[in-house]
Amino acid sequence: MKKNDFLHKHQKTLAPLLSLVLIILVTASVTPGFLKITFVDGHLFGSLVDILHRGTPTALVALGMAVVIATRGIDLSVGAVIAICGAVTAVLTVNTDWPVWIVILCALGTGALCGLWNGILVSVFNIQPIVATLILMVAGRGIAQMITEGQIVTFHSEVLDAIGNGYFLAFPIRVWIAIGLILLTVIVMRKTALGLFIESVGANVRASRLVGIEARLLVMSAYVFSGFCAGLSGIILAADIRGADANNAGLWLELDAILAVVLAGASLAGGRIYLLLTVVGVLIIQTLTTAILTSGLPVQYNLVVKATIILAVLLIQSPKTRQWLSGLFPKKEGDKKGSTTP
Amino acid sequence: MSNFVEGAQVVTRPLLKIDNLSKSFTGVQALSGVSLQIKSGEIRALLGENGAGKSTLIKVLTGVYPRDGGDILLDGNAINAADSGHAQRLGISTVYQEVNLIPTLSVMENLTLQHQEKVFGLISWKKAEIRAKALLAQVGLDIDPLRQLDTYSIAIQQLVAIARALSTQAKMLILDEPTASLDSDEIKQLFDLMRRLKAEGMGIIFVTHFLDQVYSITDSITVLRNGECIGTFNTAELTRSDLVSHMVGKSLEELAPSAHDHSIQRERKALLALNNVGKQRYLQPLNLSIAAGDIVGVAGLLGSGRTELCELAYGSVKPDQGEIRLGKHSLTKFSLRRAIQVGMGYCPEDRKQDGIVAELSVRENMILALQASRGWWSPISLSDQQGLVEDMIQRLAIKTPDMDKPIGELSGGNQQKVILARWLITHPALLILDEPTRGIDIGAHHDIIQIIKELCEQGMGLLVASSELEELVMFAHRVVVMKDHHKVSELLGEDISEQAILRTIAS
Amino acid sequence: MINERNLPILATLLVFILLYGFGVYEYRGFRDTLVFTNLLTDNAFLIITAIGMTFVILSGGIDLSVGSMIAFIGVLMAYMISSMGLHPAFAIGIALLVGVFFGTIMGVIIAFFEIQAFIVTLAGMFLFRGLAYLINLDAVPISHPFIMALSDIYVPLPGRGGLTFIAMAMLVLLVIGILVARRTRFGMSVYALGGDSHSAALLGVPVGKTIIKIYALSGFYSAMSGVIFAIYTGSAYPLAAVGVELDAIAAVVIGGTLLTGGVGYVFGTFLGAMIQGIIQTLITFDGSLNSWWTKLAVGGLLLFFILLQKGIVVWVKKRAAG
User: Fold this and answer.
1) B318 touches chain A (CB under 8 A)
2) Residue B442 CB: number of other CB atoms within 10 A?
3) What is the DSSP letter of B380?
4) pLDDT digits (tens, 9 = 90+) for B254-312
5) pLDDT at residue B434, as a whole number
6) Are the Cβ atoms of C320 and B147 closer than 8 angstroms?
7) Is B252-343+428-507 CATH 3.40.50.300?
8) Which domain holds residue C203?
9) ipTM value of the model?
């Protein structure tokens, strides 16, 4: 009974974690050497490190997306924002002799500005989030192309190279950056009341208003944060390939990010989000991708597998399915009732 | 069981016969063994307070909810509507209070939706327009049927809804609070229409909370209370005070004046003062003052303006005239957060929509108001939170396995206590409670009344709206009686009794 | 007096006329009917997809799977014709059925499990693209006398222009779409659902059934678009039509349909897609402008129409209350 209580209570936390472990184990049994990590020249190498390395941009975007989803919103424009910020990074590096940190600040500022645009449309003009962010999703790549003048702008900068592919304390630098931002976000969200307010506004905007929490500024800052995260992700992706590709940088990343947030147990209807589990969600997606690559299966299976997993997760999360299942196991339902009604 | 008062010449079988109907929602009996009969050409008022079962009865009748037991006979045939569309085809049409039409479609499209006439398999809009005009003429509306519905006022939309209900060969028409948004001319127009339909032999169920209207249009009255049918009466033979006592479940005769001490503290300075505060189409301007340690009750039937008064006083709805003062502050231009900071608190009537944040834990729900008034940058430390919450759980006897349980999983009574605790930890000077005991079990009910009394002794000012007169009489120092969005009377001290309140409401 | 709900489509028409007029005024070549008929042919697959999307958006939903569906149906058709040796007519029939089937499945999940259309069709988008890859990794030509014959159908018009089979098929599907939307009970149910789904249910609209039909219809139209696209390009490629869902949504919105549902016209969508085509053609005629201006212009138009719709909604509400 005690054990069941534990499982029941931590069901939401355990499900993504167990899925991740399971996927890693299955892959390891199919692909020999998957778990192997070698230490060369002070750097760690191996599939697992590679997963972290590749998952970083998605994780950053998913972090911002989670905060937006908590407010009952969605940000479709992150892929386009990545392209814009990558373009800004590349063009400023090539065309100016500004110090690299100013270039990075400009790129991050551009991301935040894009987020502000979305935030204003959503919270001042009261436009549905899907609709509001769609505008930048469509126009954003055009803006990025305009900045790069339609070229793939390549650049060279030692600092940016380090951000893209460098190592620090055995791990890729970009992984450290992501860990830093994730921890900072978790601290700001949980050690101030910001997280509570955002979740409260997303879950019940009317009740929140009645206790004096005004939604407008909170919602706007969520979009600004999402734009900032996408900007950082854009810098890393540009640094990775040492160039800005306005057409393909961050393509469909918004969908992976949304998927990761949903895998972590958040509802698109707003409210509770789980930042660390969102990172686990990203790792699940990235592990699947890498696993399919290393196991020798054709890449295209990736999409079918992803689609199947989304559908399975959605169907499991659907209250309707729970109703059906509880109809099938009426005894369990009784148990539950007994424990909730005093 | 049926208390149906047989008219003198009832020889024909009833148009609608409801026999022993029951319906429950997860343990709550919403309707138990309700029986009634309606003749053709009869206008029947269906009355009862909130939660009496009126809307459940209508929704079971029209197939929105499946029933648990009982029979419904229309014209002698047992019917079982699968959904609202099916009910319409069977001959039962309903017009709801909140206009249930499609705002983005034209009047014509709304009137003919699902009943369009076709030519060669395609809808003929020419025929539809002719039909729409005929239907509109029937309810006395002369408007352009091609315009979008939401460009018209709510009153016109309501009449369009009635026109639509008549379009489907209805035998029974259910009008669920259709007059709430109509002015007196429009009401007269509606009543003329009802009389005409009555003459044509239609049976009409009329739900309203305006007693004047009940007496001016209906033939008979069915009163529901707590899901049971209290009785059916001829309108002409039932006095207003008897009707009100049936509705609230108390008869004037059996009410002895209560022995409660209503000692009035008139001398102290007003804590909350409402000066000529009102809002158009919402609440008529009124004055009210509450001193520290005062409990002021707000009584009145459903829709009388109880909730409106609470919302204006709190500031969640801004008045368009008058001034609200709390202590030395004028609240009229304050944000809610500022109002809370200077000592306001409000437990709303609709706990689920406006009170709890269901997904968040008991702890988070409880500290929400205090945290909001401090701002996000000044968090209450976890240990302080736990201390505050633990205290409140003890003090209010909240039954929860732990403080991190989502509040949505608690029973209604415990949710209400958490919301109450949410405000208590902000130490408000004035607390507004709208229906604090609605929908909670007896134990919690008792606890909450105890808490209200204690708060008053500690010097808090309280404004409590309730539909339960017994409760108000038990603790209020003064009772404001509301009717048709007016303050009709303010009872003081020894004058406060259920009898007196009932008389004021019925007068 | 002009009905306020027709304002957006009038604005669409105005934009269309202004853009086309600008082209005619500025470029000699634009005055030939050829430009117009080419617009019809080149944008046929987008218009067809957007017609299906119109129904989805009118009902308050969204369908992100259409682009992948186009690629999947094309690849499936090529596989059936080339590898299985089926007659193209037969293959097209099966491909359309497959499209309707998958659309129905998505509709069932949306209607019965009450999961947001956005995320269900997102899964569909991944799935169809993946299925397309599973059948075939590379571009394959579709060459069959029957397909050739279809491509060769051409009705010349005055000037140098003429209607291709593709353009005519699109126009037929457009007329069907308009009739279904405005002249059938199903069509009116779609509008009602998008206007207020709760009230629609109380008015007797079969909500679940209608939702399933909507996504089945969108499946049909995007499958049809896949067939047309395959005939148009003469080949099938699993990476075809990436991002067409966005173009289709943009066409619907620029065509004056309210993205939250309930208001709009299929014909507006046709204009919306044509406007995107004209912008592209103008940029080609200009020669000095770059291709990203298309995206910026489309984004700007999107913003304009969304704000216009919002303004109308707010204005109507204020007027009804006052």
Assistant:
1) no
2) 9
3) P
4) 554 444 555 555 556 788 999 999 998 889 999 999 988 889 999 988 778 889 999 99
5) 92
6) no
7) yes
8) 4-321
9) 0.87
pLDDT digits (tens, 9 = 90+) for B72-81: 999 888 888 8
The reported pTM is: 0.83
Residue B96 DSSP one-character state: -
- CA distance readout (Å), C126 to A263, A289, A330, B267, C162: 16, 13, 36, 74, 38
Strand partners of residue B229: B224
Please list, in sequence order, all residues whose beta carbon lies within 8 angstroms of the beta carbon of residue B41, skipping any fewer than 6 positions away. B198, B199, B200, B201, B202, B203
Q: What mean pLDDT is predicted for residues B485-502?
A: 86
Decide if A193 and B380 are in contact by the 8 Å CB cutoff.
yes
Q: Does A138 touch chain C (CB under 8 A)?
A: yes
Torsion of CA A23, A29, A30, A32, to 10 degrees: 120
Number of structural domains chain C divides into: 1
Q: Does C294 touch chain A (CB under 8 A)?
A: yes
**Average pLDDT over chain C, rounded to an integer:** 91
User: Residues of C with CB below 8 A from B106's CB?
Assistant: 5
Q: Which residue of B has its CA nearest to C185?
A: B114
- Cβ–Cβ under 8 Å, residues A144 and A231: no
Which single residue is written with the structure tokens 């007693």?
Answer: B211
Q: CA C43 to CA C255: how far, in whole Å?
A: 15
CB of A211 within 8 Å of a chain B CB? The answer is yes
- Residue C104's nearest CA partner among C219, C185, C189 is C219
Q: C119–A258: do the CB atoms touch at under 8 Å? A: yes
- Give A-chain residues touching C246 at CB under 8 angstroms: 134, 137-138
Q: Please report, for chain B, the start and end positions of each structural domain, with discontinuous segments joined by +.
A: 252-343+428-507, 352-427
- Residue A292 sits at the chain C interface (C-beta within 8 Å): no
User: How would residue C97 be classed by pLDDT, with cut points 50, 70 and 90?
Assistant: very high
Percent of chain A with pLDDT over 90: 47
Question: Could you give the CA distance from residue B245 to residue B189 in angstroms, rounded to a whole number?
Answer: 31
Tell me if B123 and C196 make a contact (CB, 8 A cut-off). Answer: no
Residue of chain B minimizing CA distance to A70: B359
Neighbour subunits, B (≥3 Cβ pairs < 8 A): A, C
> Which residues in chain A are contacts of B432 at CB distance < 8 A?
none
Unique residue bearing structure tokens 């079969």 = C206
pLDDT at B81: 86
Portion 213-272 of A in contact with C at CB < 8 A: 246, 255, 258-259, 262, 268
Question: Could A306 and C113 be called an inter-chain contact, meaning their C-beta atoms sit closer than 8 Å?
Answer: no
| Phi and psi torsions of B106, nearest 5° | -75, 165
CATH number at residue C314: 1.10.3470
d(CA A103, CA A105): 5
Question: Do C184 and B85 make contact, defined as CB atoms within 8 angstroms?
Answer: no
Q: What is the per-residue pLDDT across B179-217, written as a single tens digit (0 to 9) for each?
A: 766 777 778 888 888 898 899 889 999 988 778 888 999
Task: Say yes or no: C115 contacts chain A, CB-CB below 8 A.
Answer: yes
Which residues pair with residue B161 across a beta bridge? Answer: none
Q: Which two tokens stand for residue A117?
A: 């645009």
* The pLDDT value given to residue B181: 67
DSSP letters for C194-254:
HH-HHHHHHTT--HHHHHHHHHHHHHHHHHHHHHHHHHHHTEE-TTTTTTHHHHHHHHHHH
